Protein: Ribosomal RNA small subunit methyltransferase G
Amino acid sequence: MAIAADADVTMVESDHRKAAFLREAGRATGCRSQVIVDRIENVQLDPAPVVTARALAPLPRLLDWTHPLLAPDGYALFLKGKQAPDELTDAAPGWHMSVDQISSRTPGGLILKISDLRRV
Structure:
């Protein structure tokens, strides 16, 4: 969050304890942040230039939930594990997207940078 001090950051977290931590982290780092305590599939927000998620859902479901939140010229960063290639295969029938696969510092981890996202 500290590197996003000049950005408006909205975070969605359903766990009240984790949301309280995120609020405090935003305050401590000076990040202009808002934490919404709810499930991602329930929120309605204006589209954002960047959407991120970690350990949330398999990619097909994650795309369903985040597509409405992503600005047309924006991109998503999804931190995925060893199953990322299989999840990309599972998502392919329903989605057109450009994908950059970025190695993570975590062994077996992969960051998917997804842009040009649209339903097939």
In short: DSSP finds three helices and six strands in the chain.
